[in-house]
Design a protein that fits this description.
Length: about 220
C-alpha cells in the first residue's frame, strides 16, 4: 500500500509488476506470516496444514466436482492426521491449536489426549462459547475468509482513492455517470493496471472500450 501511494503521488513513477518485484526482493511476503499476526493469530502449523488441506480439496474438486461440509471435514481430518503422523515420526514439534472437525485435539503429546488414549476413552472435545462443538476446519476457513474480506476491502478502498468510484460496486454494475473515463484509464495506465480488465469491470461495450482506450493512450 505504501508503494502504491508513493507512485500515486510521484508522476515519474509507474506502479508495475517489475517495480513491485524489485521492492519485495530478496524477501517474500507469505500468507503464513500475515495470518500469524493480529487479529488472525494463526499458528505456522495451522497455516501449513491449511495449505495442504486447500491443495487436497482442490484436487478433490477437480475430480469429483462440488463439495459439501462433510467432504471438507473429511479432507481436513485426513490432512491433519497425516501431518501429526509426520511430526510424531520425526520427533518435531507441532504446537497447539490443532483440532479435528469433531473438536478433538490432534496433538497426542498433550497430556489430556494421551490419558484418554491410554484409557481407551474418547479425547475430550473443545466447544465454542455457545456450547457447540469447535470445528478446526471451519475455524481455519473462517479465519481465511476474514483475511480475504479485509484484503478485498483494502483493495476497494485503494480503487476508490485512485479512481473516485468503486469498480466492484453493485455486483459489477458500475455507475460511471459524471466520471471522466479517459482520465480514469490514463491513471490506471500510469499505475500499471491492465486496461482490459478495467474495461471488463466497468462493463464497457466494444465501441466505448475502443474510444476510451484510444483517447487514454494518445
Amino acid at each position: 500500500m505504501a508503494l502504491r501511494r508513493s507512485c500515486a503521488l510521484d508522476p515519474t513513477r509507474c506502479y508495475s509488476e517489475p517495480l513491485v518485484r524489485a521492492m519485495l526482493a530478496p524477501g517474500t511476503v507469505k500468507l503464513e506470516r500475515i495470518l500469524a499476526k493480529p487479529p488472525y493469530r494463526l499458528s505456522a502449523h495451522r497455516s501449513r496444514i491449511g495449505n495442504r488441506y486447500r491443495e487436497r480439496l482442490d484436487a478433490y474438486k477437480r475430480e469429483h466436482g462440488r463439495v459439501d461440509d462433510r467432504i471438507r471435514d473429511r479432507v481436513w481430518d485426513e490432512t491433519l492426521a497425516d501431518y501429526v503422523e509426520e511430526k510424531m515420526a520425526s520427533g518435531a514439534s507441532m504446537g497447539g491449536g490443532l483440532y479435528y472437525s469433531n473438536g478433538q485435539d490432534a496433538n497426542p503429546r498433550h497430556a489430556h489426549v494421551r490419558r484418554a488414549m491410554e484409557q481407551g476413552l474418547p479425547v475430550p472435545v473443545r466447544r465454542n462459547p455457545d456450547g457447540s462443538v469447535f470445528n478446526g476446519r471451519a475455524d481455519y476457513e473462517r479465519i481465511l475468509a476474514d483475511f480475504r474480506s479485509q484484503l478485498h476491502q483494502h483493495s476497494l478502498e485503494a480503487d476508490r482513492a485512485s479512481f473516485g468510484f468503486d469498480p466492484a460496486a453493485d455486483e459489477g454494475r458500475v455507475d460511471t455517470s459524471g466520471v471522466d473515463l479517459v482520465k480514469v484509464f490514463q491513471q490506471a495506465a500510469r499505475q500499471g493496471h491492465d486496461l482490459n480488465v478495467l474495461a471488463d469491470t466497468l462493463h464497457l461495450d466494444d465501441a466505448m472500450r475502443q474510444r476510451v482506450m484510444a483517447a487514454a493512450c494518445t
